[in-house]
Amino acid sequence: MDPRYEAVIGLEIHAQLTTCSKIFSGAATAFGAEPNRQVSWVDAALPGTLPVLNRAAVTSAIRFGLAVGGEIAPVSLFARKNYFYPDLPKGYQISQYEAPVVRGGTIAFTVSEGGAAREKRVRLTRAHLEEDAGKSLHAVQPGMSGIDLNRAGTPLLEIVSEPELSSSAEAVAYARALHNLVRWIGICDGNMQEGSFRIDANVSVRRRGEPGLGTRREIKNVNSFRFLQQAIDYEIAWQIDEIEAGRAIEQATVLFDPASGTTRAMRSKEEAHDYRYFPDPDLLPLVIDAAWIAEEARQLPELPHALAERLVAQYGVSPNDAALLTSDKTLADFYQAAVAAAGAALAKPCANWLLVEVVGRLNKEERPIGDAPITPSQLAALVARVADGTLSSSGGKRLLSAWWEGDRRSADELIEALALKQVNDQALLARLVAEAIAANPKSVAEFRAGKEKALNAIVGAVMKASQGKANPQQVTELIRAALSSS
Amino acid sequence: MTISPFATVTESLAALASGSTTAEALALAARARAEALQPQLNAFITLAEPDALAKAAATATGPLAGIPIAHKDLFCTTELPTTAASRMLAGYRSPFDATVVARLKAAGAVTVGKTNLDEFAMGSATSHSWFGPSRNPWATDRTPGGSSGGSAAAVAAGIVPAATGTDTGGSIRQPAAFCGITGIKPTYGLVSRWGMIAYASSFDQGGLLARTAEDCALLLPIIAGFDAHDSTSVSVPIPDYRAALDEIEAAGTRPLTGWRIGLVSDFLSAEGVQPAVRDAIATAARTYAELGATVFDVALPRADLAIPAYYILAPAEASSNLARYDGVRFGHRTEEADTLFTLYTKTRAEGFGWEVKRRILIGTYVLSHGYYDAYYRKAQQVRRLIADDYAAAFTQCDLLLTPITPTTAWRLGEKSDPVEEYLADIFTIGANLAGLPALAHPCGFDEEGLPIGAQLIAPHFGEAKLLAAAHAFQRATDWHRATPTLLP
Q: What local confidence, expressed as pLDDT, does residue A467 receive?
């Protein structure tokens, strides 16, 4: 980014709440049903129908408010946001306007930018409950548009940040932290492909140090973190170019086109809707008493930030590993289950094996942690066998591979069957070392000439000869002893 | 053997119980009378098929088994179309019954037909209907009032002993008054709005039109009570209204002794109040005093703000409530649309009548950016002040007595300026703004033989008092027994 400029970014994120039924009707919310099979009379806005608030959606909002340390309004109001669109059956969306259910709160997250990691906190403006609209289906029949109302009335929590983000990296890190949090507290499945977590980014730029805000443009409906990064980067560069070319930025709503990597205006300020918000007379004010809040607080799990701090303090896990382990609830649960089985003394190697070997393999296969072909207790058994010297680390990896490929036998059975047991027999190792020294005169000479790295080749030869079972530490010591004494 | 078409629900039940008539005979007689009077009154939009009606009557069970009734065509019914008197919904079939309809059906009432109304209940004359105006059984060149004018005309003409109505600004009470019958608008929230097509949600309240307060007391507990489908319906125990009437009957000649009735005297001296109306209300006040009540003047100082507040808030809600009629999913759809924009504009231009369009425009305007505070918010504040006026009045008295309307029924086409029609709601709108229960009962006739109605207003959930007082009045007077002479 042009160093003379800075960007100001705020995000509005729509998290679809994982309630069984819709926010104002009893229809199901499951994704992927045949069009218009999950539509009640209320969702279709038939004459004479009325909304009734789903308590589970409110529970989700309370949990979120607690998780971000926001203020949960004792009384909040539902309002009608009026506009015409074919997928909006009532001609208005029930949302919250003047009195949202949650105000304030903060999200803390780690930003990795330019090779350095730093902590950042962003304040939330508000979070409010609202219903989703349906979908327009184009190209189902030539020349016709279809309407699918399955999604109409699905509960959403719209989470609005203060404009306190200053780069695409910060925006993505914030969005990821929020994405983790809503799944962590069990209110949203976070499935971005299915639209369960949709991001709008308000982006403006200004000359560095200027007090006022530039005119913002809103990038609508981004459904991946990669696109969010690309869209913001493009938008910042475009706005700077415009200003540099002497053109004023006009307020607009834009869409990001992943194919071209550019944003294009959807509607200008002049075309902006006048939503004519007013309190929905069909719904009573939403009253949340202290007892309800206390009940949800009691059921709230330990939050990612608190858990990360505890992993560092209690287990000596590095802050970086702790952040990784708590970046996903399933991963954190897996880790904690493994530590419970292996014992707290092995918490650090559990973290290493999980993050490097298990997550590494999963990442390569582009699978989530939930798909891991091993269980936390298997990981614990593996780590224990490495720790007690039964397995070398390469033996451990071979054990992991066996499980990965579907072998159902226990750690000890596989160590036996695959002969993975580390060789600690001094006499045998001494013989192999002597053979390796004899067979690698060049490396020996180099080592003696002071080239420490040459030792690795000799260790490697021994490991190869032992089919990976030799204890590498013992081998190294034996080689050093042999070469220094002669 | 048949009974008088003007028999009350109570009398019809007795006749059924004694075997002097049958449910089938009652239903078919009601239908035949409806059909015969349709050219004069146009009270109905849809009548049930005789075969279906006979079958429904023959199989009805429950406390109202075999009582023919009519529903205002704003209530959704599965068996008959539901139109709201709009071209927009001509022929529309609801997949569900309104809670009011379902409860009456479960109690054994038999639906003879769906009655005419002002389109989407917007009006005071039942002349703003896609299906043509209804006419007053007392003078067929006059309006039966509105918007529940079809229901009022059907009861007054002896077609059915009772009918449902809805009241947003007076739409049960004013037609009841114009047609010389009794009507009750319950406390907001007492009767479920599920299946009642919305006009102005924070005002709309379902209720009843019948010949007597006694019949209203019989029917009200059937339709009243909490409904999980309506978030604004209130969970309160429904009092034993019959017991309240029994107390009156047991109390001798001065059954209202100890009751304090506030006469809103400013309403009587207001400009434009017909002398006959003023006199009839004054006479009703004397009757209440003779029945033992202490009657004295009270003031509702901000009553003149009711109409402006109502005609901001109700259209605001209506403009949003009627947005769903877009031609996409149900109802009328233009055949001339080539873009989404014209689908909307032409569908709505063709589907809605002028009064509906007028209120949608007003409502859209007052909610617009920059006008909200000046109109909607201000009107909400006024609404609160008016409610405070009523609350203050009820610290002095148990019930308020007022006229229902400044005049008796006007001639069709007489009020060509919409604002004139709006102003006729002046005495009824306050109860809607404050959510209070109110009842209309006949209390006289003007020099042309047109009925005059008195209004009783009670504090929230004071229906038992309204019904008991009106029952006492009707035991002492005969106004409610008069029947129109122009009809067979």
A: 80
Instruction: Measure Cα distances from A170 to A203, A241, A258, B149, B397 in Å.
Output: 13, 22, 20, 65, 66
Q: How far is B371 from chain A (nearest CA, A)?
A: 10
Tokens of A330: 């399933």
Query: Where are the domains positioned within chain B?
Result: 1-488
State whether B194 and A49 contact (CB < 8 Å).
yes
Contact A47 B76 (CB under 8 A): yes
A90 — contact with chain B (CB < 8 Å)? Answer: yes
pLDDT tens digits for range B272-294: 999 999 999 999 999 999 999 99
Interface test with B, best of A23, A42, A84, A280 (most B CBs within 10 A): A84
The per-residue pLDDT for range B228-274, each reduced to its tens digit, is: 999 999 999 999 999 999 999 999 999 999 999 999 999 999 889 99
Tell me which of A73-77, A109-113, A315-319, B300-304 is least confident. Answer: A109-113
Query: For residues B295 and B300, what is the distance between their CA atoms, to the nearest angstrom?
Result: 16
Q: Which helix (H) or strand (E) holds A438?
A: helix A426-439
> Quick check: A233 pLDDT over 90?
yes
Taking CB atoms and an 8 Å limit, are A92 and B372 in contact across chains? no
Q: What is the residue type of A321?
A: D
The Cα B227–Cα A43 span in angstroms is 19
Q: Over 90: is that where the pLDDT of B320 sits?
A: yes
Q: What is the rounded distance in angstroms from the CA atom of residue B417 to the CA atom of residue A9?
A: 54
Residue with tokens 């330990």: A302
B interface with A, Cβ–Cβ below 8 Å: 75-76, 82, 84, 89, 92, 94-96, 98, 193-198, 200-202, 228-232, 316-317, 319-320, 322-324, 326, 328-330, 340, 344, 364, 367-369, 372, 376
Q: What is the rounded (10 degree) CA torsion for A88, A92, A94, A97?
A: 130
Token readout for A402 is 């066996």
Tell me which residue of A325, A324, A323 sits closest to A338, measured CA to CA. A325
How confident is the model at residue A432, as a pLDDT?
Answer: 87
Instruction: Give the residue-averaged pLDDT of B12-36.
Output: 97
Do residues B401 and B287 touch, judged by C-beta distance below 8 A? no
How far, in Å, CA of A389 to CA of A474, rounded?
Answer: 11
Task: List CB contacts (< 8 A) between A147 and chain B.
Answer: 328-329
Q: What is the mean pLDDT of chain A?
A: 93
Task: Give A96→chain B minimum CA distance, Å.
Answer: 16
Q: SS3 string of B285-321?
A: HHHHHHCCCEEEEECCCCHHHHHHHHHHHHHHHHHHH
Contact B194 A48 (CB under 8 A): yes
DSSP strand pairing (B110-115 vs B68-72): parallel
SS3 at position A28: strand
pLDDT over threshold 90, residue A480: no
Q: How many residues does chain B have?
A: 488
Mean pLDDT, residues B325-339 taken together: 94
Question: Taking the domain B1-488, which CATH number applies?
Answer: 3.90.1300.10
Q: What is the pLDDT of residues A438-462, one digit of tens each?
A: 888 888 888 888 888 888 888 888 8
Contacts of A45 in chain B (CB under 8 A): 324, 329
Q: Which of A42, A58, A94, A276 to mutate to test the interface with B (most CBs of B within 10 A)?
A: A276
- pTM of this prediction? 0.92
Contact yes or no for B399/B466 (Cβ under 8 A): yes
Smallest CA–CA separation between B42 and chain A, in Å?
A: 24
Sorted by sequence, the CB contacts under 8 Å of residue A404 that are 6+ apart come out as A361, A373, A374
The nearest alpha carbon in chain B to A148 belongs to B329
Q: Is the pLDDT confidence value at B209 over 80?
A: yes
Instruction: Report the share of chain B in percent with pLDDT over 90.
Output: 95
